[in-house]
Amino acid sequence: SLDCLSNMIADDIQLRDEVIHVKLIEIILVRDIINSSVGHLIEALLKGRPFISVSKVCQLIPIITKFQVCEEGVICTRLLLNMSNEIIDKMIISTLQMIIGQASTSLACFQCIGTIYATDHPTLISLFIKPTIEILFQYATMISDSLKIKTPRSSLRSNLLVDETSIRTFLWTVENLFATLCELDKKEAHSILSILIPSKIISSTILCIFDQSINVCREAFSTIHSIITIISNIPQLIITLINTDKFFDIFEILFIQLEPNEVYHLLELTLILVSSQNTQIILELTERNVFEQVDLFTTSNNTEIANLAEEILRIEHLYNFNSDEFEL
Known about the structure:
The protein is mainly alpha-helical. The chain is built from 20 helices and no strands. It has helices at 2-11, 13-21, 24-31, 36-47, 54-67, 71-81, 86-91, 93-102, 107-118, 122-146, 164-180, 186-196, 200-208, 214-231, 235-242, 250-257, 263-275, 279-287, 290-295, 303-327. Helix 5 packs antiparallel against helix 6 (71-81), helix 6 (71-81) packs parallel to helix 9 and helix 9 (107-118) runs parallel beside helix 11 (164-180).
């Protein structure tokens, strides 16, 4: 009957409110029933929009915590995180500590922890950012071990954990984690960036560009674009990033793989790099014919893309003019 009710609630928001009204939650609490049917019912109650009241959610949390790291508990905890409520956050800290303990071996747990950074949770971020980085290090190691680059379009999956969903969850979490650093104290954020940029987390993200899945490639690019945007005003971190193995090789892949509407972000990224006027960057991009590719977009019908391309070439020409003058 609970399973039937769960399915009905999923289709009828008014029925959800009626279930709450007849105090079914209180009955379940009193009887201390913990099984998959109860888990599915709570999931159905939490999924509906608009959200149920915080007071009702708080009634559900004691049941959810009893599931601990079982699938139902993890799914419901992730739904609680989607509510971005500080009162709820404080009530699920101990549950999240158990979940993060399993995140390196459970994709569902990893996705749950990633949700902290995809939604608004300032208290949880300060508590969990360091253990999350440790989890990301573990996934980065598995990814770099399993994505053995033989040719620009090949990949080898040697670890069952590192399937496409795991890789995309890794990239999604990395991108969102970097975005949340802007909310931290400036000194703390810089300290974390100094750990992350030279790490395997970044080199594995770059390797994902070469994966045979176009979805993985695009998400890896989105992550790299976000990272470069965030560190664009910190020259020493840009230098560290560009010295990561295969960094400049990604341009050869991206100009081929990205759709026309995605090229804007690639040009935006290129402009950030050339604006640093770093000799190595200009030379590496020239060697890979990136400026020739950029030149093709100066005639684009999209004015923003054409303007970006022209600005990149203006800086490149200025650099080459100054170099020739210096040699003279």
